[in-house]
Amino acid sequence: MSVTTESLTQLFPPDEAAIPEAWRRPTPLHQRQYLLDGELREWNGPTQEVLSPIQLRQPDGTLQPVVIGSYPLLDEAESLKALDAAVRAYDHGRGEWPTMSVAARIAAVEKFTRLIVAQKKEIVQLLLWEIGKSAADSEKEFDRTVDYIRNTIDALKDLDRDSSRFTIEEGIIGQIRRSPLGVVLCMGPFNYPLNETFCMLIPALIMGNTVLFKPPKHGALLHFPLLQAFTEAFPKGVVNTVYGRGNTIVPALMSSGKIDVLGLIGSSRVADSLKKLHPKSNRLRAILGLDAKNVAIVMPDADLDVAVKESVLGALSFNGQRCTALKLFFVHETIAEEFVQRLGDEINKLKPGMPWDEKVNITPLPEPQKPGYLAECLADAQAKGARIMNEGGGTAAGPLVYPALVYPVQEGMKMWREEQFGPIVPVASFSHVDEAIQYIIDSDHGQQVSIFGSKSQEVAHLVDQLVNQVSRVNINAQCQRGPDTFPFTGRKDSAEGTLSVNDALRSFSIRTVVATKQTEANKQILNEIVDGQESSFLSTRFIL
Ligand code: G3H
């Protein structure tokens, strides 16, 4: 069946009855509450209406946006109150939470996990309706997040066990542990609104920091069911939410100088401007996951079955809306035509539809301006000599955009350097692999790369050239963040700091040492403290 605007329009439901019961639109959630200083406060000010990317098809063939709720747009004054609550709860590191034993903090996070698992259905449904993620992937995002939390707890137990001993060096006795940093401002992205937010928020919390948490613009409502869980699991002021427009509320938070850690998965432009607002930038730690334009290099001897399969996954999972997505392909000129042909065939096997459709691959995009931007990119490339190589590529019906395979892409086209973050697959050809390497060297980004090839010497050469350009080189595999125990970071404008189950615990804490000279008197003091369990820090207790 050929893809047309009409055929894509037909994929939208005409009414609620056409949606499988399990995935029907949730009752509109007009959220007026936000979490500040341990209580859910009511907001009477302006709100943001939330429209789903899933629209209803009208009898005249137009698509009608669906309102799924609204959330508070706090003002600067209210967000500063949330900041003050987090500052008070931290109390210069003397608050209940930062001084609590690791075991007790773990117990609180375990309680929180139990509470959110009970909310899975509602959260997954909101995830699907807010960002158009398929039902299977929305469930996967939830489960992956719960696994991440459980693995974080296990990793902290290990870390704590390793720290529960004294070290004696050069006549000095020391105990080395990790301590919290202070108040963390945590902002996640729309494409993984739950998972990537929690990959920062949970390590930040469990290490004893207090948190100000701003949900993303798309993917805000799904956090509402969690607010009560935060109040039940953590002491007051430890988690506070700020809802609203980033550019209205965040600058004041940063300029206050009271944010100690900026945890942001978003754009390098925003990260850069926020960091500059902190009056004492040396005091600010930043853990950032930012832009990326990951490249795939396809060598002449590549196994094209593998390369094509991984390329489809890498470029188009969740419609290409992943920071790790493959966003430009360099293919050797001798196989470029064949690669493009086969890739186009595979792309056209992807199933567009609604997120609840069985085995759906391409779903409506949540950013209202995205289809227009993608059309601009396509028109620009076509005007400069590229062609859309798959039938129907780039056809759109409202927010649903059919993937476009574009070839040959060259310098000077928008999609050569811009991060499309959507269903466009640009392919360029090369005669010498140095052209691809030079592209990566000149890039502002440095997250990951994929190499497809079968000659070990050539793969080895590329690996050695590329490991100092990016932070992960994938051989005959797409780029991806997982497994979550692997370090996830990037160079240049792609990241700052490292996230992974283990690394995040380190990123959101600082090593702290208590030391004394090895005299009899000092040994006696240490023994008394430890035997009497008089200190949370100085302790040899083991968490089992
Ligand atoms: O958007 C960026 C995500 O971290 C990508 O994660 O590779 O698991 O899809 P993923």
TrEMBL record:
This is Acyl-CoA reductase. Belongs to the aldehyde dehydrogenase family. PANTHER family: SUCCINATE-SEMIALDEHYDE DEHYDROGENASE, MITOCHONDRIAL. The keyword Oxidoreductase applies. Pfam families: Aldedh. GO terms for molecular function: oxidoreductase activity, acting on the aldehyde or oxo group of donors, NAD or NADP as acceptor. InterPro entries: Ald_DH/histidinol_DH, Ald_DH_C, Ald_DH_CS_CYS, Ald_DH_N, Aldehyde_DH_dom, Aldehyde_DH_Superfamily. It comes from the Bacteria. Residues 67-509 form the Aldehyde dehydrogenase domain. Keywords: Oxidoreductase.
